[in-house]
Amino acid sequence: MSNRSSLTVYSRIRMDSGRGQMSIRGKAHIVGAFEHPLREIPGASIAQIHAEVVVGALRDAGLELADVDGYFCAMDAPGFGAVTLCEYIGLHPSFLDTSEMGGASYVSHVGHAAAAIAAGKCSVAVISLAGKPRTGGAPPGGSMRGPAAPEAPFELPFGPTTVSMYAMAARRHMYEYGTTSRQLAEIKVAAAHHAQYNPNAFLRKPVTVDEVLDSRMVADPLHLLDCCVITDGGGALVVVSSEIARDLPRRSVKVLGHGEAAKHTDNGRIDLSYTGARFSGPRAFEEAGLSPADIDYASIYDSFTITALEAIEDLGFCEKGDGGRFVEDGALQAPYGRLPFNTDGGGLCNNHPANRGGMTKVIEAVRQLRGEAAPEVQVPDCELALAHGTGGSIGSRMGSATVILGGEDA
Fold this sequence. Notes:
Elements: H1 3-18, E1 28-35, H2 46-61, E2 70-72, H3 82-89, E3 95-97, H4 105-118, E4 124-131, H5 152-155, H6 162-177, H7 181-195, H8 209-214, E5 217-219, E6 222-223, E7 233-241, H9 242-246, E8 253-263, H10 277-288, E9 297-300, H11 305-314, H12 323-326, H13 346-349, H14 358-370, E10 384-392, E11 398-406
Parallel strand pairs: 2-3, 2-4, 9-10
Antiparallel strand pairs: 1-7, 1-8, 4-7, 5-6, 8-11, 10-11
Helix pairs in contact: 1-4, 7-11
């Protein structure tokens, strides 16, 4: 199905929701999740990694390839995208979605899959991601340098790089709100603390605030340890209808709410101090009928420390400008911090496959709600979780996607 046709389905769901007649809340369940265990995969193709993670997620769910009638992927899919991968993997779906929002794509796909299931378009949806930026694949920021983009003649002559754009956002946040490098470093410290318990994490060594500040400067004010890892890898999710989830042996995770947004540059008058989470978060919470205070665990996109800090504010976990103070004193560390986050080590330490972190954010939220995170970082009685993805660049145009997930009784 084309993106235009898919949008027609989603628009109908949203319209019905607005009249109080239909919502995706509780209509779909995540029953399978799989993260590729390797961070360097020189001997496999991207299509092969896609196939491996799809099979892994279906095995986790107790389902087979023949059960799949919905398939979702983004621009990391090689060849002719979803069509190529369906042939390669052996899928025969009646519903396809190739929505592209950069790293937020896979979070948005959870909402899209739930909408398609609620509309009766499919009942077993698989979402996959794969990439090899560490061993020869596309480097970060390639889409930002596309010469055909309408913004290219106005922006490319100035030589923007991925990290420099995020550094501008960090510096602006510091100017507006007094945020410090030490506060940004607290986010890395929490991620590294969690990563030591993940045997597959790319960086497993705990670090201190001073070690973050002593790492070399990459783009002022961001140090090397403020930046995410570059890894090969992939992941997949299986989203099914309530009727199918009921008959499967694994504990399922309920999709409660979903929101998306695109934030613009406002024709050169961009405000770098906030992200699209300001819009996607409230939409997801409204559909779920919940508030930030209800959330037990949060997976928040962390391409850089400033990405996570701004999103924490924009999702409503603290007031705008208070993010620096909010993350101090171990507030993000599981299991007993104020907001346990990214307990797999996140993009800062664990994995950032294909330079896109949205997939792993949902996978770790599923682990928490199933009670299957590493014992040292499992949040006690975790019943409600948020997963948030960021795509594009917070220094220019970006997309945001947020999903609210719950346990079987949520």
